[in-house]
């Protein structure tokens, strides 16, 4: 079966690893960092202006893929809600001894609440583990894109990209 | 016709969507007097007020801002520019010498005499037909979007989306935000049509995007109760025996848009069939002027693209009009136009934009061929 964003609707591991916005495993191990999952050249650059540390470069022309300057990124998370494509995530593998923290842009209501246990979902929409909501950042600056911080087992940190919080309709 | 009351303006803009508003703002703020925007709807803004998502583009295009907020900003700028908007006003004819026959709900009919006319009439949704397509519950994706985002009415509980272009993907996402379930998105081509980031949003929400699939029929007695879908081979032909029945109550069609160009046809503008831009589009030059002098086009009417290209084409038409009316020095007008043209070029790059850039170049080439042949001595 054909893989990749044009066929499956979500980036393959290969596409992610070849894209300049996806941080290296080495950088991810060091601590909080933005994970830019933007693998298609579309005319768009708000992420570049969003980063207060100059860690995201798009340049001219604006169809360039964003490049994450991973040593400049301090993991502040400002960029997450600024991406119109909801394609910027954030991972902190140093969160605690047995949990990693993943930040996800989220635009559904009702918003999950801190402490709530949720299903942690992959890029393909499959439940792969359970997670715990740690923080929900819905400040004005985010312009109605909430950023939810989810604690999961570290091995799932680079796979979990959404949550399922609402009860299934037929239950 | 001689009984119709006359109303003289310098610039008449038909259509109060992003292209029309931007055109009026540029023309009026450059100094043009009496800029009139005409729109048949009850509210200005075109499709902007149902676009609740954040837009792509550059900082200069207000990228990252939601369509609804861009709409509000444009309306404020219109107010500041002193351009006037007549809503619930239909243009039903165009006569020689740039006379537009209009009818307004309150004012009655008028004959608008303009020095320059800009058509920014947008596009309309395409449909495909299949057995059962007239059942209640089959609708355009744009219509479903209007229902949820403007009228706050859910068209159905379980949706089948036909078409994976940006409209199909975005409307699927917004229907889920409104509380519906999207059962699947079908795409007849072997690849997803729209931006990957839009596809990814609905994929991680659990929606399947079935490429090389189409709808065979809608089933139900009084309304849609299910849909039969079928797989397509590499030539796009249905493969018998691959039918599947999906339980849905709503089928949304997101199968492209066609330019709404009747007025430009009526005005005698030259057209060309360019499938990449949605069908028949009127030729125009670098200034957005058509083959008929003093008549300009901007936005989807001259090629179905996006909101940010529509705004910039509108701006280009507005600056051109202001320049040719003498409100800007030719140097000033050229400088402003060049900035906009460069920006448009940027928006038409990359795997999605390149096709449109080439098509646009073709339109301008055909315009100049036509122009040359007409004025050959």
Describe the fold and architecture.
The complex is a heterodimer of chains A (171) and B (377). Chain A is of the alpha+beta class. Chain A is built from 4 helices and 9 strands. Chain A has helices at residues 5-8, 13-18, 25-30, 46-50, and strands at residues 33-36, 56-57, 67-68, 88-92, 100-106, 117-122, 127-137, 146-152, 160-164. In chain A, strands 1-4-5-8-7-6-9 form a 7-stranded antiparallel β-sheet. Chain A has a two-stranded antiparallel sheet with strand order 2-3. In chain A, strand 4 (88-92) and strand 5 (100-106) form a beta hairpin. The termini of chain A are far apart. The mean pLDDT of chain A is 95. With 377 residues, chain B is α/β, with parallel strands linked by helices. Helices cover 33% and strands 26% of the residues of chain B. In chain B, strands 1, 2, 3, 4, 5, 6 and 19 form a 7-stranded mixed β-sheet that branches. In chain B, strands 8-15-9-10-11 form a 5-stranded parallel β-sheet. In chain B, helix 3 (141-149) packs parallel to helix 4 (166-177) and helix 4 (166-177) packs parallel to helix 5 (196-203). The longest helix of chain B has 26 residues, at 350-375. The mean pLDDT of chain B is 96. Chain A binds chain B through residues 2, 5-11, 37-46, 49-50, 60-63, 82-87, 107-109, 121-126, 143-145, 161-162, 164, 169, and chain B through 53-59, 63-66, 157, 176-177, 181, 190-192, 195-207, 209, 211, 308, 346-353.
Summarize the structure in short.
With 171 residues, chain A is of the alpha+beta class. Chain A has four helices and nine strands, in the order αααβαββββββββ.
**Cα separation of the termini of chain B:** 37 Å
What is the approximate shape of chain B? globular
Order of helices and strands of chain A: HHHEHEEEEEEEE
Q: Tell me what portion of residues of chain A adopts beta-strand conformation.
A: 25-35%
Give me the count of strands of chain A. 9
* Largest two-chain interface: A-B, 46 and 42 residues
- Cα-to-Cα separation, first versus last residue of chain A: 33 Å
Estimate the global geometry of chain A from the Cα principal axes: globular
Average residue pLDDT of chain A: 95
Query: Largest beta sheet of chain A, briefly?
Result: 7 strands, antiparallel
- Assembly type: heterodimer
Query: Residue share in helices of chain B?
Result: 25-40%
Number of helices of chain A: 4
């Amino acid at each position: 079966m054909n893989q990749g964003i044009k066929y499956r609707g979500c980036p393959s591991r290969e596409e992610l690893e070849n894209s300049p916005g996806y941080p290296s495993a080495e950088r991810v191990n060091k601590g909080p960092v933005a994970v830019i999952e933007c693998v298609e050249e579309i005319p768009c650059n708000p992420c570049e202006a969003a980063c207060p540390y100059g860690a995201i470069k798009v340049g001219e022309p604006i169809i360039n893929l964003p490049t994450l300057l991973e040593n400049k990124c301090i993991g502040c998370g400002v960029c997450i809600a600024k991406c119109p494509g909801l394609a910027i995530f954030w991972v902190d593998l140093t969160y605690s001894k047995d949990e990693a923290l993943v930040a996800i842009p989220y635009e559904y209501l009702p918003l999950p609440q801190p402490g709530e246990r949720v299903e942690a979902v992959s890029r393909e929409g499959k439940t792969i583990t359970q997670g715990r909501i740690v923080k929900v950042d819905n400040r004005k600056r985010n312009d109605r894109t909430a950023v939810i911080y989810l604690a999961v087992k570290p091995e799932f940190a680079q796979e979990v990209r959404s949550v399922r919080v609402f009860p299934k309709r037929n239950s | 016709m001689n009984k119709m009351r006359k109303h003289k303006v310098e610039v008449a803009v038909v259509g109060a969507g992003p292209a029309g508003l931007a055109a009026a703002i540029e023309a009026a703020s450059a100094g043009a007097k009496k800029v009139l925007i005409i729109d048949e709807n009850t509210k200005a803004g075109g499709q902007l007020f149902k676009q609740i998502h954040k837009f792509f583009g550059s900082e200069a295009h207000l990228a990252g801002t939601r369509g609804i907020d861009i709409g509000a900003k444009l309306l404020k700028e219109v107010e500041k520019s002193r351009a006037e908007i007549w809503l619930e006003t239909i243009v039903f004819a165009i006569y020689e010498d740039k006379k537009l026959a209009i009818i307004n709900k309150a004012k009655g009919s008028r004959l608008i005499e303009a020095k320059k006319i800009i058509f920014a009439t947008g596009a309309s949704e395409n449909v495909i037909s299949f057995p059962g397509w007239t059942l209640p519950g089959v609708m355009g994706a744009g219509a479903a979007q209007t229902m949820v985002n403007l009228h706050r009415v859910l068209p159905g509980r379980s949706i089948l989306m036909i078409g994976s272009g940006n409209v199909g993907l975005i409307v699927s996402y917004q229907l889920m935000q409104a509380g519906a379930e999207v059962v699947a998105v079908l795409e007849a081509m072997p690849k997803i049509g729209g931006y990957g980031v839009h596809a990814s949003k609905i994929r991680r929400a659990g929606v399947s995007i079935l490429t090389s699939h189409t709808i065979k029929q809608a089933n139900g007695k009084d309304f849609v109760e299910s849909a039969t879908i079928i797989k397509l081979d590499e030539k796009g032909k249905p493969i018998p025996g691959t039918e599947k029945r999906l339980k849905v109550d709503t089928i949304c069609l997101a199968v492209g848009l066609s330019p709404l160009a009747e007025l430009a046809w009526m005005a005698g503008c030259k057209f060309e069939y360019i499938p990449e831009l949605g069908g028949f589009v009127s030729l125009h030059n670098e200034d957005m002027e058509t083959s008929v002098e003093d008549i300009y086009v901007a936005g989807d009417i001259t090629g179905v693209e996006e909101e940010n290209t529509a705004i910039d084409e509108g701006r280009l038409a507005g600056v051109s009009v202001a320049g040719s009316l003498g409100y800007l020095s030719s140097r000033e007008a050229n400088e402003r136009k060049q900035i906009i043209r460069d920006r448009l070029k940027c928006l038409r790059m990359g795997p999605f934009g390149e096709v449109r850039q080439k098509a646009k170049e073709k339109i301008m080439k055909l315009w100049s061929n036509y122009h040359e042949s007409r004025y050959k001595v």
